[in-house]
Structures are given as structure tokens and as C-alpha cells.
Design goal:
By secondary structure, this protein is mainly alpha-helical. The chain has helices at residues 20-23, 28-53, 68-83, 105-108, 118-137, 141-145, 157-181, and strands spanning 3-6, 12-15, 62-63, 66-67. Strand 1 and strand 2 (12-15) form a beta hairpin. It is globular. The relative contact order is 0.21.
Length: 197
């Protein structure tokens, strides 16, 4: 019933999600997962476009007290973390070329162990993008109603995905606003990764 095509930002999406034919047979759980995934992917696409639009000379531009690249790195690390089943199972990417050279320390400390380049963070974003829909759509209703998997986040797994989505959108707005002050267009608003019916 779903025709898997690619959104112009490289995000997979189902066509016809909101058509009568499709919604007659969809459960509330499936509909909510589709909606959350669509909005999460849209926020992530806007965030990624900010990174793509950032000229090299502005990669260290400050957003409050942190350079743009560090804000981007922080965002990607937590998308990676929150898409995992939980803090006990998440594995930092510590191998050669890994995104977490010092493991958990990269998330726990205020500053990362090293500066990350634009190409590195775009590669990290490309790695995470397909995980968003796959993770959310792979959740069972029971899992979504269960604990988040993170001891400091005392709400359901369903709310965790909305929390993570909000975190991405917050950090998409920061570089977007900063780039605009520097005369750089970070791109237009992305409504959803699911096209209009």
C-alpha cells in the first residue's frame, strides 16, 4: 500500500499516507508513528540544510558561547543516543573515524574532545537520517507506552521521540538564525517528510 520514494532531502517517505484508502485501515499507533517520523525527519532536514549552507568561514561562528559546529555535534550525538533503545544499550562510535573518540565523555562533558569538520558532521547526519523513520516505525505500541530507556527522562518512549524532535528543531533554529545574521540563507521551512496527498 505504501510506495517508498525519496523526499528531495534524501528522506524516505510513504506516498498516500493521508488518503482515505490508507487511513481506513491504519491504527492510531501507526498514524502517530507516521506523524512523529514525518515531523522528526522534517526538523532533521532543516537542521542538515543549515550545516550544508554554512560557509567554511562561519563554521566557528558563535551561537551564544558555542561554535556552530559544536552545537551541530551536540545535536547529532543526542539524536544518535535517543534513537537507541536506551542508555544501557547505546554504543558510542569510538572506532577509527568514529564520532565519539572518547566514548560517553563526548556527551557528558561540556566540550567535545576535538573539533569536527563540516564533512564529518554531514556524514554523521547522513548516517542518522534513515534511522529516524526506521526506529520510530519499528516501535511496538507496548514499547511506545513503556519507559523512555533513559533514567533522567521519566516519560514514555513515545514522548521521548517528541522530545528528541523538539531538541532537533531547537538546534535547527539556532544555526538558521545565526546564518541569517551573517547573510547566509539556511533554506526554507520543511513542513513534513510526508508530501501532501
Amino acid at each position: 500500500m505504501l510506495n517508498d520514494t525519496r523526499h528531495k532531502y534524501g528522506i524516505p517517505h510513504p506516498r498516500g499516507l493521508y488518503t482515505t484508502e490508507y487511513t481506513e485501515n491504519i491504527t492510531m499507533s501507526a498514524l502517530l508513528k507516521q506523524a512523529i517520523a514525518g515531523q522528526f525527519e522534517a526538523a532533521f532536514a532543516m537542521f542538515t540544510r543549515c550545516l550544508e549552507a554554512c560557509p567554511d568561514e562561519h563554521w566557528d561562528a558563535l551561537i551564544a558561547k558555542y561554535p556552530l559546529w559544536q552545537t551541530a555535534y551536540h545535536t547529532l550525538c543526542f539524536v544518535d543516543l535517543y534513537l537507541s533503545p536506551g542508555e544501557k544499550t547505546w554504543q558510542p562510535r569510538t572506532g577509527p573515524g568514529g564520532f565519539h573518540p572518547l566514548g560517553w565523555t563526548e556527551l557528558d562533558e561540556e566540550y567535545p574532545s576535538r573539533r569536527f569538520t563540516k564533512d564529518e558532521l554531514l556524514a554523521y547526519a547522513a548516517l542518522l537520517a534513515p534511522m529516524i523513520r526506521a526506529t520510530i516505525e519499528g516501535e511496538s505500541p507496548e514499547r511506545l507506552a513503556g519507559e523512555s530507556g533513559f533514567s533522567r527522562l521519566t516519560f514514555s518512549r513515545a514522548e521521548l521521540h517528541i522530545y528528541a524532535l523538539r531538541h532537533v528543531q531547537h538546534h535547527a533554529g539556532q544555526p538558521g538564525a545565526r546564518l541569517r545574521t551573517l547573510g547566509v540563507d539556511p533554506g526554507r521551512w520543511v513542513k513534513s517528510s510526508v508530501p501532501s496527498a
